[in-house]
Amino acid sequence: MAALLAAALGLLIKQTPGTAVEAQGSPPLEFSREPPERIVRAETCGECHLSEFEVWKKTTHATGFKTLHRTERAETIAQKMGLRLMKRDSPCLACHYTPVVRSGQLRAISGVSCESCHGAARDWLDLHNDYGKGFNHSTETAEHRQSRISRSREAGMRRPSDLFATVASCFGCHTVPDEKLVNLGGHSTGSTGFELVEWSQEKIRHNFLDSFLTGDGTLNAERSLPEKRALYVVGRALDLEYSLRGVAAAQEDGVYSKAMARRVKVTLLEIRKILAKVSHPALEEIPPIVAETRVVPGNGKALRAAADRIGAATRRFLADHRVERLAALDPLILGTAETESFEGDAYADGVGEDPLLQSGVPSAPDGEGTQLASTGAAPGETATGTPTADRGRPAVGKFKRRIRPASKHRTLGPGACGGCHEPANAWWSGDPHFASATPFFERQRKNLQIARLYGLKTGKMTLGNQVCMDCHGTVISGNESFEVFDGVSCESCHGAAKDFLEPHKKGEKTQGLERSGYVNALRLGMEELKNPKIRAKRCSDCHYITEPRLISAGHPSGKGFDFLAGMRKIRHWEGGGPGDTQLQQAFASVLGARGAVPQVELARLPSAAAAQLAQQSEGRAPSLARASGSTWNRPRPAAAGGLAAGLVGGGPRLGAALAPPRALTDLELPPFPQIDPDTAIEDILLILKRRLELLHSAVAPKGNRAP
């Protein structure tokens, strides 16, 4: 980026009034999303579109022209990027301003404006309102209207009815397509919670066209529910497309690539919610496109191709859909679907029926509180004295879906916090907490074994309504029945943020703990982590386990957890805080209230089930990037009744299904794991060793088989 800036600043550009820009070299068009020489300014549009112009002037799109560059955050980003002026020959121009060429420089003339969304207007301005001599909008002939619309589109206009092109303008900026701007400058990784219907129908709504046609043109009409259905689908699909383009632009495993990969997972989940309610062949093409694409930095060509295919599928949907058939989406659009259950969704069942259930291990009860008590027999025996070597031993204690106290507030996910807390977000992306959910998607043997002994289907241990993700992931409210792809994150410690996110920003920082936003946030769900006892409790909820059934299933109790060392490892805050003595005393007090770790009999899988579990674990593809938590497993053959589940950037590839292992017969072996060029040599050797062992056990005479 620095090289591009230097080149841009060295250009000599001359503009002749009334003609296109003539330049020695090329103008810095990489900093302008529209041809700067074809911009006519929002004021020109406002001469006819008076009501729309008045709405625009009050939006942050417009007001940012005078305020954005003065903010502390913007100044910090500009300094890190080496930018002297944000409004001149700067990458900021592309998304925050409307630029033109003046005095040999690309300069901002306004904030985001009409032409940012509808296209540079010089060539179509007169065409789009020419109704024919002697005619007006209401008397224009059908033939002339068709010709007028066609010619204005050819000249570059993106009409409101051109839903795909207009919406694409939004996501081209709201997904922040600039890796260095994020990794080096500390810019946010995109607008959080950017749902198109909500955003377009609130502060930026300027739909006066309908009232112009039917009345006096003063009513800023909200789109009808049928119109919102198509808008909702297109918004979700384009968010996914541009998130893939974001990963395609990434060249390194850093904050930007991880954020874009996470955005892919988030938006793909939303597409799956849509497909759980409506069926459309074009939309059904989308999850498999992502499932067959490696969503990792440096894979730009394949990612851009996948994005193009998703864009094409979205256009096919727009060309052939009927809004009445999308009525089932209304709960999603209106926000009432968060209370619905998606348990019946085929996507939510993971591997389907777990073969280990056929091996004598008790399945999970339907609810909490069911007691599976110990038989009281001696180790190795059942209540009747029969050896249990082949039958296993069930876990002791109540089956639970949660072990931490449930919050009465709603969780948003880490994307809601990273935009303002950039240093903390950068820290988190490299901390082990970031990838705490990954081992469950990698199907590591330890995780599979604990899940089965606990009584949980291994295909469901990644779901937000099961006990594993209560501690190992961040469960976003409304997505409990789906896979949890975020590890332990902001809200795991600071509290569910739905209610306090906006209020906690209020007030001056200099007021410290007396700041109104801080005081109000504590009443709305934010945890007071400056209090050593509250901090100790938040950590101990997961790091100190006293649930008998979990411990019986082989889960570590955390009895030796070093709280002070843990605090030092995760330090990502400025200023001081409670001292070591305070923290140590608080932790001891919390553990004393929780009580000692219970002594329980360890459960044991039946021998047949243990063998099958080993196959499930050893057949998985190796992790390709351990330290960062960015891992990838290639898709496996789909099991009946489910799609595949691999890994995308350290979380689930939310579209595919791991087939349950098949028993070996004759020379029939499980599929050979896929190997990438960057797979570690030790992983390849281990795969070959296990493969040879399987082959030997299949072909060797029974008496000569390895034990």
Architecture overview:
With 707 residues, the chain is mainly alpha-helical. Among the domains are: 1-121, no CATH class; 170-340, no CATH class; 628-704, no CATH class. The protein has 32 helices and eight strands. A hairpin with a 2-residue loop joins β3 and β4.
SSE order and pairing:
Elements: H1 2-9, E1 12-15, E2 21-24, H2 42-46, H3 50-57, H4 60-67, H5 72-81, H6 93-96, E3 97-102, E4 105-111, H7 114-118, H8 125-128, H9 142-154, H10 163-174, H11 179-183, H12 196-200, H13 209-214, H14 225-249, H15 255-275, H16 281-284, H17 286-291, H18 300-319, H19 330-334, E5 371-372, E6 397-398, H20 415-418, H21 422-429, H22 438-441, H23 445-454, H24 467-472, H25 490-494, H26 516-523, H27 532-543, H28 548-552, H29 563-569, H30 580-594, H31 607-618, E7 646-648, E8 651-653, H32 681-699
Antiparallel strand pairs: 1-2, 3-4, 5-6, 7-8
Helix pairs in contact: 10-14, 14-15, 14-18, 27-30
Brief sketch in words of this structure:
With 707 residues, this protein is mostly helical. Among the domains are: 1-121, no CATH class; 170-340, no CATH class; 628-704, no CATH class.
Mean pLDDT metric: 79
Q: Rg to the nearest angstrom?
A: 29 Å
Poorly predicted runs: 1-27, 340-389, 621-666, 701-707
Major pleated sheet: 2 strands, antiparallel
Q: Rough shape?
A: globular
Calculate the terminal CA-CA distance, rounded to whole Å: 60 Å
Number of strands: 8
In the sheet with the most strands, the strands line up as 1-2
Look at the helices and sheets and give the structural class: mainly alpha
Number of helices: 32
